[in-house]
Specification:
Blueprint lengths: L1 H19 L17 H19 L3 H33 L3 H8 L6 H5 L1 H7 L11 H11 L13 H4 L11 E9 L6 H9 L6 E2 L12 E2 L13 H6 L2 H16 L4 H6 L5 E6 L5 H11 L18 H10 L5 E2 L7 H14 L5 E8 L4 H9 L29 E9 H6 L6 E10 L12 H14 L6 E5 L6 H15 L6 E3 L2 H4 L6 H15 L1 E2 L23 E2 L4 E8 L3 E8 L3
Parallel strand pairs: 4-5, 4-6, 9-10, 9-13
Antiparallel strand pairs: 1-7, 1-8, 2-3, 6-7, 8-14, 11-12, 13-14
Amino acid sequence: MAAASSVTSPLCTWLVAACMSVTCGGDQSTCPSMLGSSSNSCNNNNNNNNNKRRLFGGGSSSSSKWGRRKRVFLSKCSSELQSQRDLISSLCGSSFQGLMTSCLAFEPCNQYYASNAHFSSLFGSGGNVRVRSNRRHTRFNRAVHSGEAMAVAVQPSREVATKKKPVTKQRRVVVTGMGVVTPLGHDPDVFYNNLLEGVSGVSEIEAFDCAQFPTRIAGEIKSFSTDGWVAPKLSKRMDKFMLYMLTAGKKALADGGITEDVMNELDKARCGVLIGSAMGGMKVFNDAIEALRISYKKMNPFCVPFATTNMGSAMLAMDLGWMGPNYSISTACATSNFCIMNAANHIIRGEADVMLSGGSDAAIIPIGLGGFVACRALSQRNSDPTKASRPWDSNRDGFVMGEGAGVLLLEELEHAKRRGANIYAEFLGGSFTCDAYHMTEPHPDGAGVILCVEKALAQSGVSREDVNYINAHATSTPAGDLKEYQALLQCFGQNPELRVNSTKSMIGHLLGAAGAVEAVAAIQAIRTGWVHPNVNLENPDEGVDKNVLVGPKKERLNIKAALSNSFGFGGHNSSIIFAPYK
C-alpha cells in the first residue's frame, strides 16, 4: 500500500485539478468551492438572493418563491459538496476507475476497462472496482456533449511515468591492434624503434620536381607497396591517402589477431570504421582538373568519390563487410583524435564492439606544398632536412610536411577478452574544444588548449598527477610550440615526473594522420616503458624548462597515463588519454 500511495500521489493531484474544472449545473458562478465550506458558499448565495429581493421589490410571494429556490439551491449545494467529498475520498482511497469516468471529459477506451484488474492491484482497491455498463457510458457521453463547460488537464505529472534507469557499468575501450604507414616504417615496432633511436624521416622531396619552391623537403614515404593489402585495380585508381588508409587499417586488423576465422565470428553489424583525412584525395582531384583542360572526357570517372574524405572509410568497410558506424571526420590536423574519440564513444554507448579509427593524408604534391608555402608555414631549411623540424628550439622556422596513416583497432574490453586478444593499452577518454580566435594562429593565452586538457581529464576521470607523459602537438612553428608548452605547464606544472616530447621532430607533420600516428607512439611508450627523444632541441626557447622536455636520447619512464594533443587550423583542439590496461 505504501508503494501504491507513492505512485498515486502526483496522479491524484492531477485528477483533483481536473475535477475542480468540472462545472456544477449550467452556471459556473453558482458552483460551490471544492476547498471552501458549504455554509460559506450557501450564505454567499443567500446574500445574493436578498439583494435581488431589495432590487426588484419582491413581497411575500417573492419571498416564498425565493425561499423555495433557496431550499432547492441548498439541497443542490449539499449534494454537490457531498459528491466532491466522495471524489476526494476516491482519490485518497481506491476507486480509481470511478474517478476516471466521473471527472474526465472523454470516454476511457476499452483497453482501459480491460485493465481493471491491474488498476485494482495498483491502487489497493481489493477488487471492488466495477466496470461501468454501456448504459452508464451512454449517459456519460450525453452529459459531455450537452453543452456543459468542462476543462481538463490532459497530461498527468511526469513523476507518474518516470522510471529510474537501471545502473549499468560503463563499457571500457581497449586498444588491441595498430597499423601505420609512415616515413620511418610501416610496422608499429619498426616505426617506434626508429623513434627511440632518434632517426629522422625528413628528406628531400623525390615524388616531383620542386626546384621552383622555397621548401623542397618533407617527411616523404620513399617506398610503399599495397601488395597483399589492396586489389591491384583499386591501387591504380585510388588516391594515396586511401591506399595508406586501407593498408594501415588492414595491418591493424592483422596486428590485433583478426584472422579470417575470427572475422567470420564477428557480428559485422557491430563493427565500424571511422578514419578521417584533413586533405582528402588532392592528387585525384588535381589530376581531374588537368584532364579537364583537355576535355571532360579525359577525366577519371572516380575523381569525385575518390577525392572525398569519407570514401577511405567506406571502401575499407566494403572490403571487410562491416556494417556498423561508418563515416569520417575532417578537422584539419586534429582529425585523427576526433575520429578516435568518436569511435570510442560508439563502443561506450553500446553501438559497436569493434572500431577501426585514425587518420590518413597524402598531400606532398605540388598543390599541397604550394598551398602551405603560400601560408608561410613551412621550414625552408633545405640544406639540412633532418634538422628542419625542431619543436621548442629557438631556431625553428616552420613545420615540415609529412604523409602517412595511423589506425587503431579499438575494442570493447569484454569482447576483446572473450576472443583472447592482446591488449596494448586502455583508452580512458578525451575532449575537444575550439579557440574561436583565428584560422591558423593559436589563442594568445592558450585558453582553448587549457580548457581542452581539463575537460579531457574530467571526462576520463584521471588526476593531473597521474599524467606523467605527454606527446605534444608541437609542430615546430614559432607561435604554436610555445603556447602549447605554457598551457601544459599551467595544467601539469606541479608534476615533477612529467615528460613531454614531439614525434614531429622526426617525421614531420602528417596533417590529418598526425594524431593517430602519435597515438601509436604513445601506446608504444606505455608498452615498452621508453619515451622517444626530442631531436634538434639545441637551444630551447626562453622560458622553456628542459627538465620537462625529453632530451636528445630516449628515456625510461613508467607511464601512469599518457596524453596526446592534436590541434588544427580553425582553432580545433583535441586531447586523448591512454593508460596501461589493468
